[in-house]
Amino acid sequence: MQEFAFHAELWLPRSRHEVVQFFADAQNLETLTPSWLKFNVLTPAPIQMRTGTLIDFKLRVHGLPFRWQSEITLWDPPHRFIDEQRRGPYRLWIHEHRFEERDSGTLCVDHVRYAVLGGWLVENCFVRRDVERIFAFRRERLLELFAGKGASAN
User: Fold this and answer.
1) Cα separation of 100 and 98, whole Å?
2) Could you give the CA distance from residue 88 to residue 71 in angstroms, rounded to a whole number?
3) Secondary structure tally for the chain: helices H, strands E
4) Distance between the two ends of the chain, CA-based, in angstroms?
5) How far apart are CA 79 and CA 111, in angstroms?
6) Distance from C-alpha of 121 to C-alpha of 8, rounded to nearest angstrom
7) Phi, psi at residue 114, to the nearest 5°?
8) How far apart are CA 118 and CA 152, in angstroms?
């Protein structure tokens, strides 16, 4: 299985506690996901975020409906957490979220390891562009919600 990686960083002029509290509410995933994915959290609120928590979603990828289940495999606030796809459109999806105190704010680091059916060809023609678009939307949304002046994306 061929793996690919995606990495993004975003500095927000807010406390690490405030940023982590936002991510601790799984319902906020809908806020951070572009509307073209028609993403909905199916697991009833409130969702207790901790190692072992399962969260179910539905979404559309290129018009095709998918169910997605993520498991929180590491919950270590305020430093980081990891979610892994248990069911969904990817062969592998492991997303590490890290939060670092930096310059009187918080550096949010996303690192994703993933694999797709069809390998390099499908990844190169479809998936990479989709992942980049999703994280670009997420970056812009987080800037709208938290930043105001002085925020930056790396």
Assistant:
1) 7
2) 12
3) 4, 8
4) 29
5) 14
6) 23
7) -150, 160
8) 35
Give CA–CA dist 68/132, Å, rounded: 19
What are the structure tokens assigned to 12, written together?
């927000």
What is the fold of 4-153?
Answer: Alpha-D-Glucose-1,6-Bisphosphate; Chain A, domain 4 (3.30.530)
pLDDT tens, residue order, the chain (154 aa): 899 999 999 999 999 999 999 999 999 999 999 999 999 999 999 999 999 999 999 999 888 999 999 999 999 999 999 999 999 989 999 999 999 999 999 999 999 999 988 777 778 777 899 999 999 999 999 999 998 744 455 5
- Tell me the C-alpha to C-alpha distance, in Å, between residue 46 and each of 5, 17, 21: 31, 19, 14
Q: How is the chain split into domains, by residue range?
A: 4-153
Output Rg (C-alpha) for the chain, integer angstroms.
Answer: 15
Token pair belonging to 141: 């949304």
Q: Which residue has 């509307």 as its token pair?
A: 35
